[in-house]
Each structure stands twice: as structure tokens, then as C-alpha cells.
């Protein structure tokens, strides 16, 4: 048997390694790919994963290669997670700097050297702009755009002059919440606040529905809150992905209570910030905004008080001068009038004295004449009046007998009628009385089907229950 020429596998892998090294030695490449099959060995600082490229229409894999990161690459992954807030994991889209190597045992391998964080942040910004366009398209009734500003139903609400009762949506263990509450509690103006906490998770894109539900809880609580405050601590940009979701932005834009945000970012606005009534950078800033708002109202009240005081003093001064002038004029005019009418008063006084004397003399004379008449006529008048009284007494006696007889006749008639109309006689003639709840019922419409009734006959009481009611035609008593 002829012996075939062969080489060792190690010789072949050495040739492959030499060829690849000759082609890729010292070369690095920036590539765009998706991460799959990711695993991490934290204690060693090793990261193993596959980099794949997919077709845009079908998502079918068109290229796949094993990749690894350690040392510098592992450090860049930590920086990527810190800056973007995005965990390095499966199905993320990255722009990475890689080198190509070949190992006789481990085969072809891509080594990750660096990651472009701005590429990932750019993708997030693109998603954010797409979400904003969708909100404008789907919700024209309560979201519009004017220039670079978004006009929403929420940011068009008017804040109450004083913000005192507040609903706070935050994490129970958030340091930002502690800062917010400490700032309110220690405000130097001594303002008091009523805070109702609605704790939930405020980090992670998938937790948006939990925050949304807390807003629904606030709405259903039917408490007259002056404002709703959404706060959380600081973090990297993608820590705020929850605040860039479509559903969360829509709920905030439509919410009927003014929303103040303080979600701990210093640079970019989130969609929730754009939709809310009053966005601030941090929880502390949110608290300071509320205190400042209340201080403006207090200052406005103090200014109005000062204006009222000054105006009152001015009016008092003006009217005091006018009152003094009027008082002086009254005194002077009174003196003048008294001087002018003094002689007239003396004249009228003399006329009054003389006229009074004449009237008294005439009245005295008439009184004497009347006295003489009174003395001569009393007997005649008394005799005439006695005759009149005798005649009146006779008439009264005669008319009294006739009236008494007539009234007795009336009383006898009414007594007969009352006896005929008494309940006892009516019951004897076959009629009955119907009671409901111990009350006589005359209106049948007030008796409901199924109601207990009492029927009273001449010598019997019947208890019954109404089973049905039928309309009578009214002919039962026709004669």
C-alpha cells in the first residue's frame, strides 16, 4: 500500500497562524456588530461572546465570529457600562475596535480592544427622536411642538399659588428622595408640606409600566394634590431610558395634575422632562423650585400688603385734609346762619306768644259755652238712651230664640251626617280600610307589589301581602 504524504495538524495550524499573522499582525479594525452568546468571568476579568452581523430585513446571520475581551478590552467594557449606563450583554448593537488572531488550539478569534460609547448613545438619541415623533403623530390633542418646545396638556396647567400637598413618585431607597425631603423639611422660610409617597422602581426601561401605574394610583386617589414630583438619583445616560419610553411620556403629557421632574441628570432632557410641567435637573433642584414658587407667592402677598398700607395712608391723608376743611366750613357757615336768622327767630318768638294768648282766650270762651249746654242736656240724653236700650233688649231676646232654634236644627242634621259617615257605619256597609305601615292608604299607586298590608273590616282585621295590582274600569259602583 502506497503511503500518502501528510503533515501534522500542528504544522497546518502553524501555517494558518503564519498566514493570518502576516495579513492581520498589528492591524485593528472598527466594526459594527451585535453581541450574542455572552458570558463573563468576573474574578478573572475575561469576557467571551460572539459578534454577529444580521440582514436588515430578515435578521438572518450573515457573519459570525468568536470574540474575547480581557485586560484593556475588559477595562473598556467597564468604561462603556459606566458612561452609557447600558449593561454589556446579549443583543446590544456596538461599534467596537478589534484585532484578529489565530491560535492553534482556540482557532480564529477576535479580540475586543475598545468600544465607541458615543455610537451607542447616538443610537439611544435616535430612538428618543423617533419616540417624540410618534408622540406628536399619535397624540395631537394634547401634545404639539412650537419651535423647539413641546406644548402638552400637563405643561399648560396652572400651578396653584402655593404648592403644599405633594405626591412623590420615587424609589423607597433613593438617595435623591432623601435630598428632596431634607431640602423641603429644612427650608429657611418655615414652609410646611404634606407629602404622600408612591414608591416604585424608577430605573430600567422595562419598569416604565410600574411608574405609570403609580401615576394612575395618584389619579384614582382623588386627593387634591398641588403637584406630582417624579425624582430619582443621578446616573449614566441610559439609566434614564425609563424616562424616554413612549407610554411614560404619553401619560405625563396627559396627566391632569402639574408634574415636576427632578431625575438627576445634568445634560440631556428626557422625554418625560419635555412632557412635564416643570423639569428640573435634580431632586434638590425640584425641592428648591417648590420653595421658590411658594416664596414668590409670599413676596407677592407682602408686596400687596405694602401697597395696600401705602395707599391707605395716602387716602387717609387726603381725606383727613378734606375732612378738616369741611369741618372748618361747617363751623363758619353755622355761625353765619345763626347771625342771619337770629332776628327772625326773635320775631317769630314774639308772634308765637301773642298768637298763643289769643287762641287760649277764644278756647276758654268756647269751653264755657259748651259747659252750659252740657249741664242742661244730660237728663234728656239719658232718657232717650234708656228707651233705646229697652228696645234693643227686646229685639235681642226675640232674635236669640229664633237663632238658637235654627242652630239646633243644623246641629241635628250634621250629627246625622257624621253618624252615617263614621268609619264604623262605613265598615258595616261592606267597605274596608287598608293600612300600610300602620297608615291608612287612599292612593293605590303608593302600594307596591309584595308589600305587607292590613285590611280592617267591621269586626275583623286581615293581614295580607299584595301579589298583584290591576287597573279598575270604574264601573263597579254604577247604579
Mean pLDDT: 84
CATH superfamily of the domain at 125-296: Response regulator
Rg from alpha-carbon coordinates: 54 Å
Low-confidence segments, ≥5 residues, pLDDT <50?
none
Instruction: Categorize the overall geometry.
Output: elongated
- Main β-sheet: number of strands, strand sense, barrel status? 5 strands, mixed, barrel
DSSP helix count? 10
Spatial ordering of strands, largest sheet:
1-2-3-5-4
Family: Belongs to the XseA family.
Keywords: Cytoplasm, Exonuclease, Hydrolase, Nuclease
Enzyme class: hydrolase
Pfam families: Exonuc_VII_L, tRNA_anti_2
Provide a descriptive summary of the structure in words.
Among the domains are: about 10-115, Nucleic acid-binding proteins (OB fold (Dihydrolipoamide Acetyltransferase, E2P)); about 125-295, 3-Layer(aba) Sandwich (Rossmann fold); about 425-465, no CATH class. With about 475 residues, it is α/β, with parallel strands linked by helices. Helix 4 runs parallel beside helix 8 and helix 5 runs parallel beside helix 6. It has helices at about 10-25, 70-85, 115-140, 175-185, 210-220, 245-255, 270-275, 285-375, 380-420, 425-430, and strands at about 30-40, 45-55, 60-70, 95-105, 105-115, 145, 150, 165-170, 195-200, 225-230, 260, 280, 435, 440, 450-455, 460-465. A hairpin with a 4-residue loop joins strand 15 and strand 16. It contains ten helices and 16 strands. The longest helix has about 90 residues, at about 285-375. It starts with 8 loop residues before the first helix and ends in a 14-residue tail after the last strand.
Amino acid at each position: 500500500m502506497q503511503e500518502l504524504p501528510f503533515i501534522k495538524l500542528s504544522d497546518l495550524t502553524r501555517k494558518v497562524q503564519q498566514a493570518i499573522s502576516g495579513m492581520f499582525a498589528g492591524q485593528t479594525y472598527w466594526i459594527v456588530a451585535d453581541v450574542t452568546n455572552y458570558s463573563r468571568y468576573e474574578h478573572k476579568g475575561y469576557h467571551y461572546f460572539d459578534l454577529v452581523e444580521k440582514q436588515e430585513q430578515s435578521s438572518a446571520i450573515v457573519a459570525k465570529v468568536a470574540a474575547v475581551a480581557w485586560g484593556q478590552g475588559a477595562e473598556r467594557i467597564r468604561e462603556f457600562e459606566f458612561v452609557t449606563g447600558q449593561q454589556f450583554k446579549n443583543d446590544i448593537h456596538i461599534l467596537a475596535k478589534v484585532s484578529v488572531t489565530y491560535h492553534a488550539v482556540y482557532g480564529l478569534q477576535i479580540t475586543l480592544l475598545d468600544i465607541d460609547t458615543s455610537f451607542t448613545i447616538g443610537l439611544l438619541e435616535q430612538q428618543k427622536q423617533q419616540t417624540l415623533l410618534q408622540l406628536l403623530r399619535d397624540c395631537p390633542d394634547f401634545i404639539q411642538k412650537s419651535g423647539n418646545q413641546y406644548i402638552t396638556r400637563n405643561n399648560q396647567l396652572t400651578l396653584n399659588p402655593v404648592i403644599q400637598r405633594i405626591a412623590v413618585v420615587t424609589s423607597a431607597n433613593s438617595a435623591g428622595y432623601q435630598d428632596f425631603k431634607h431640602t423641603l423639611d429644612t427650608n429657611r422660610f418655615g414652609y410646611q408640606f404634606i407629602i404622600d409617597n408612591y414608591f416604585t422602581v424608577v430605573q430600567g426601561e422595562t419598569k416604565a409600566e410600574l411608574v405609570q401605574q403609580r401615576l394612575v394610583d395618584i389619579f384614582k386617589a382623588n386627593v387634591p394634590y398641588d403637584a406630582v414630583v417624579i425624582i430619582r438619583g443621578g446616573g449614566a445616560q441610559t439609566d434614564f431610558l425609563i424616562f424616554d419610553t413612549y407610554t411614560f411620556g404619553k401619560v405625563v403629557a396627559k396627566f391632569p395634575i402639574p408634574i415636576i421632574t427632578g431625575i438627576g441628570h445634568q445634560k440631556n432632557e428626557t422625554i418625560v422632562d419635555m412632557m412635564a410641567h416643570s423639569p428640573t435637573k435634580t431632586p434638590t433642584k425640584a425641592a428648591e423650585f417648590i420653595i421658590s414658587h411658594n416664596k414668590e407667592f409670599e413676596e407677592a402677598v407682602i408686596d400687596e400688603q405694602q401697597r395696600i398700607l401705602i395707599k391707605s395712608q395716602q387716602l387717609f391723608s387726603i381725606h383727613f385734609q378734606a375732612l378738616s376743611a369741611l369741618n372748618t366750613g361747617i363751623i363758619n357757615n353755622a355761625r353765619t346762619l345763626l347771625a342771619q336768622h337770629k332776628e327772625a327767630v326773635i320775631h317769630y318768638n314774639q308772634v308765637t306768644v301773642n298768637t298763643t294768648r289769643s287762641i287760649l282766650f277764644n278756647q276758654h270762651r268756647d269751653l264755657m259755652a259748651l259747659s252750659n249746654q252740657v249741664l242742661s242736656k244730660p237728663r234728656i240724653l239719658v232718657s232717650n238712651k234708656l228707651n233705646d236700650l229697652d228696645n234693643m233688649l227686646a229685639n235681642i231676646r226675640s232674635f236669640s230664640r229664633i237663632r238658637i232654634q235654627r242652630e239646633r236644627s243644623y246641629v241635628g242634621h250634621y250629627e246625622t251626617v257624621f253618624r252615617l259617615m263614621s268609619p264604623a257605619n262605613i265598615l258595616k256597609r261592606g267597605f274596608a280600610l287598608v293600612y300600610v305601615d300602620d297608615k291608612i292608604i287612599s292612593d293605590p299607586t303608593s302600594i307596591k307589589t309584595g308589600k305587607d298590608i292590613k285590611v280592617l273590616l267591621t269586626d275583623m282585621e286581615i293581614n295580607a301581602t299584595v301579589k298583584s295590582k290591576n287597573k279598575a274600569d270604574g264601573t263597579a259602583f254604577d247604579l
